[in-house]
Write a structure and sequence with these properties.
Blueprint lengths: L1 H25 L3 H12 L8 H15 L5 H21 L3 H12 L8 H10 L4 H18 L2 E3 L2 H8 L5 H4 L2 H20 L6 H11 L10 H18 L13 H17 L2 H13 L6 H11 L18 H15 L24 E3 L1
Antiparallel strand pairs: 1-2
Organism: Photobacterium leiognathi lrivu.4.1
InterPro entries: DUF3541 (IPR021928)
Pfam families: DUF3541
């Protein structure tokens, strides 16, 4: 019996050692997984739509300061210039702005998605939001981040001042429909030195989504809540340009730590990655939440296609860029960097698209 027990003990040790060695062999560094996604997207980057290529290139530049992303950033500048040229020339009266919004809302009418129907219902009584929030503010803020402005900047600012953005930012149905976008927009308004309704938005958001009611939210609405939280921090960092302080957003980080397992179980990969990046922006690289999000994101990568597919198994690069660029940032975080700006990186701004000028 003693001999059998000894053999069992030895075999058990050998099995455990073999399993551990096999697991270690299969363990791939997170940076290697990030590079796998980069190698999928970057050879095809300039086949993607300008907005998508610009989204990727700007984020990768702010991580690396690598000038190889200059062309993607120029595409983004050109997109911003085109938008602002159109807005300043064609959309300045209340009637034009209302009609623009109504036309944009038509795209939601036949969609069966919960988010689309919420957006249609919430916005049909205030269609100007489609111009002001979804259209104008993002382009003006991006130009501002580059150290630029539109040549008709004064005219565009007068348009903004015709509307009280608090109306949109504190409306519960608008928050349920456009919450992450509103988080961006209230910070953009502050960045531009216009209306400051950040605090009012945060108060309204917390009243709209009390933590005690999480279990009653639909899957889409729970994801929307977490998406809003991540975008409050992203917007405060001016999108990966500035570090943030945990204490300034303690209520958000406390919520993440308490609910991370539920977040990973019930939200999409882009939201999971955003939660992890929020911690990285606060310098909390070693927090257990970061480890959990990195593990989840790494294991969502399809090795054959070198990317994270959609929840329906789609591998389209254009529609998948958002979740995959976030995955790269989470798995291979390099810190925050300001730029590019016309003053800091003048070589990247030798040819500024028509309509934009230095601030």
């Amino acid at each position: 019996m003693r001999l059998l027990s000894f053999r069992y003990w030895v075999l058990t040790l050998l099995f455990c050692w073999s399993f551990a060695a096999h697991s270690l062999q299969l363990s791939i560094p997170y940076q290697q997984s990030a590079e796998q996604i980069r190698q999928t997207f970057e050879p095809q980057l300039y086949t993607l739509p300008a907005f998508t290529a610009g989204h990727y290139g700007l984020r990768m530049y702010r991580q690396s300061l690598d000038p190889k992303y200059t062309a993607a950033i120029w595409q983004d500048m050109a997109r911003v210039a085109s938008n602002l040229n159109k807005f300043s020339a064609e959309l300045t009266t209340p009637e034009q702005i209302t009609q623009y919004g109504l036309n944009r809302l038509k795209s939601y009418e036949n969609s069966p998605k919960e988010r689309s129907q919420r957006r249609l219902a919430a916005t049909k009584a205030m269609p100007e939001y489609m111009y002001l929030g979804v259209g104008l503010l993002g382009s003006m803020a991006r130009a501002n981040e580059y150290g630029l402005k539109h040549r008709d900047d004064a005219k565009l600012r007068e348009v903004i001042r015709c509307y009280d953005f608090k109306k949109y930012a504190t409306d519960p149905e608008m928050i349920r429909a456009w919450g992450a976008q509103l988080a961006n927009q209230v910070y953009w308004l502050r960045q531009l030195g216009e209306q400051d309704v950040v605090n009012e938005f945060v108060v309204a958001f917390r009243e709209t989504y009390p933590d005690s009611k999480d279990s009653k939210l639909s899957e889409q609405q729970y994801g929307n809540k977490i998406y809003i939280l991540t975008h409050i921090i992203f917007a405060a960092s001016q999108y990966y340009q500035l570090p943030i302080q945990e204490k300034d957003f303690q209520w958000i980080f406390d919520y993440y730590r308490k609910n991370i397992d539920n977040i990973i179980k019930n939200t999409k990969e882009d939201i999971i990655a955003e939660v992890g990046v929020n911690f990285l922006l606060a310098g909390l690289d070693n927090d257990p939440v970061v480890g959990k999000t990195r593990y989840a994101i790494q294991h969502a990568i399809n090795d054959k296609h070198g990317m994270i597919p959609s929840v329906t198994g789609d591998f389209d690069l254009a529609s998948g860029e958002h979740r995959n660029v976030l995955a790269i940032m989470l798995l291979d975080w390099k810190g925050t960097n300001i730029g590019p700006t016309v003053n800091r990186q003048p070589d990247m701004f030798k040819r500024i698209p028509y309509g934009l000028i230095a601030k």
